[in-house]
Amino acid sequence: MAKTAVSFFWFRRDLRLEDNVGLYYALKSDYPVIPLFIFDESILDSLPKEDARVTFIHESLAKINTQLNGIGSSLLIKKGQTLEVWKNLIAEFDVKEVFFNKDYEPFAIQRDEAICQLLETNKSITYSFKDQVLFEENEITKSDGLPYTVYTPYKNKWLEKYYQNLPILEFDASELYFNFYKSQFVFPSLEQIGFVESSIKVKPYTFDALANYHDTRDFPAVDSTSYLSPHLRFGTVSIRKMIHFAAKTNAVFLSELIWREFFMQILYHFPKVVTQNFKSAYDGIQWRNNEEDFKRWCTGTTGYPMVDAGMRQLNETGYMHNRVRMVVASFLCKHLLIQWQWGEAYFAEKLLDYDLSANVGNWQWAAGTGCDAAPYFRVFNPDIQLKKFDEKGIYIRKWIPEFDLGYGEPMVDHAFARDRAIATYKAGILK
Ligand code: FAD
After folding, report:
1. Residue 219 sits in which domain range?
2. What crossing angle do the helices spanning 340-350 and 291-299 adopt, rounded to 10°?
3. 205 lines ligand 1 (CB under 6 A)
4. Ligand-binding site membership of 213 (annotated)
5. Angle 270-273-275 from CA coordinates, rounded to 5°
6. What are the site positions for Electron transfer via tryptophanyl radical (predicted)?
7. CB 336 within 8 A of CB 390
8. 96 with 6: CB under 8 angstroms?
């Protein structure tokens, strides 16, 4: 029997029908479009059975599937090694075209190259699109064509380009929905994927507190940030919409979204930052890497309330306020002299919004090893941070209920740790 000629739209970190560039172009295809999602076993196998991110992905796919059911279509969900899944799809369908949005992580780039090669051999045409960021790859570079490694000039160029190019299209594909493949693929339960529902949930995003964002965003007890990060990570909202909204309402908020783009292009141009120092001059630092100290940091039992509250918030909710992330990261690298990669890996395991580019970028910023990083001799004093940003102790009491019953001693004296950090960095930085 002849195979059915189809096109595919492959969902990855763009879990929405609305304003989705790759999907928009897919639906203009001459062939009916099968919307596809692949649970990649090589990632799933490394996760615990209860993972809030897998729960969130599953919920987001269920929403898309319900929308598709309303127009006589459905999501095709597969689980396996991505390359094997594609080999099977090629065997089952006459795959004419495959559309997807680009992912800039080194692992994803490699995977996509392998899949495109396979599809090419099969004479299927592949198309990839920019959807995850407003400006990608080489769109914002210095006048000599090299990538920016300092945020402020990057941001200035970004803003210049943004305002030059307005308005930017919204990719509304609703009038093309008739071109979805008519199907009733079975939608698997979370258990069938091999997971159980997590009690930790991704919060909906909000702009309620944005009017005062520039004044209040640094105060964890005020809780005035947007909670957009997991939504941007999994693409349940469109970055274009968020950026247009920010540009109209709040310049400080916009500059945070530009930080996200900055770190994305750093990862794209300098993939070594995933595991290595951006500044190789810092490769000679003699980290202490004490396992017991690391455990105390992970469990929020360092004796520094700001650090402990942050780590407990992370462990219980999968989220930590940005100011506190900066404090705990600085504490790990400077006070405890544990290399940033350990902290980065712990955050990667726990954060709902874990995003390789932002996580590595911010960790290297805190360690002083990254581009445009905090200078190595700046060592946050966790107690001064507490006085400045949680003066009444509201945030720390929320996460450390025993605080008023007499809190333990700090595991290391601040003045001692500060001097030790500066001396160790100084001795280790290669001239
Ligand atoms: P808002 O203040 O409402 O900001 C809006 C959006 O701007 C965020 O959703 C995010 O997309 C972007 N943004 C804000 N600050 C930054 C920043 N410093 N770098 C890059 N983008 C930013 N963010 C992640 O999305 N994933 C991570 O894995 C991650 N790891 C981090 C690790 C450390 C050590 C530190 C210090 C920061 C990290 N951040 C990370 C950045 C920041 O803490 C979160 O983006 C923010 O707290 C998310 O909450 P929000 O959406 O309410 O933020």
Report:
1. 133-168+209-269
2. 40
3. no
4. yes
5. 140
6. 287, 340, 363
7. no
8. yes
Written as six digits, the tokens of 216 are: 């209040």
- Contact yes or no for 111/104 (Cβ under 8 A): no
Is position 12 annotated in a ligand binding site? Answer: no
Q: Give yes or no: residues 298 and 383 share one domain.
A: yes
The separation between CA 410 and the C-alpha centre of its own chain, rounded to angstroms, equals: 32
pTM beyond 0.90: the answer is yes
Closest CA to 157 of 149, 169, 384, 218: 149
Each residue of 177-228: pLDDT tens digit?
999 999 999 999 999 999 999 999 999 999 988 888 989 999 999 988 999 9
The reply to whether 87 and 148 lie within a common domain is no
Q: Hey, which residues does 126 pair with through a beta bridge?
A: 98
Q: Radius of gyration over alpha carbons of the chain, in Å?
A: 23
Torsion of CA 117, 358, 16, 315, to 10 degrees: 120
Q: Is 355 annotated as a binding residue?
A: yes
Q: Flag whether the ipTM exceeds 0.85.
A: yes
Give yes or no for residue 385 CB within 6 A of ligand 1.
no
Whether 98 is covered by a domain: the verdict is yes
Whether 234 and 295 share a structural domain: no
Structure tokens at 75: 């999501």
319-366: pLDDT as tens digits: 999 999 999 999 999 999 999 999 999 999 999 999 999 999 999 999
Residue 220 CA to residue 222 CA, distance in Å, equals 5
Ligand 1: atom nearest CA of 351 is: 28
Return the active site residues: 256, 259, 287, 322, 340, 363
Within 10 Å of residue 288's Cβ, how many Cβ atoms? 12
Neighbouring C-beta atoms of residue 334, cutoff 10 Å: 25
Give the domain CATH number at 162. 1.25.40.80
Which of 151, 216, 256 gets mutated to test ligand 1 (max ligand atoms within 8 A of its CB)? 256
Does one domain contain both 238 and 294?
no
Q: How many residues appear in the chain?
A: 431
Long-range contacts of 415-420 (CB under 8 A, 24+ apart): 417/334, 417/335, 417/336, 417/379, 418/334, 418/335, 418/379, 418/381, 420/337
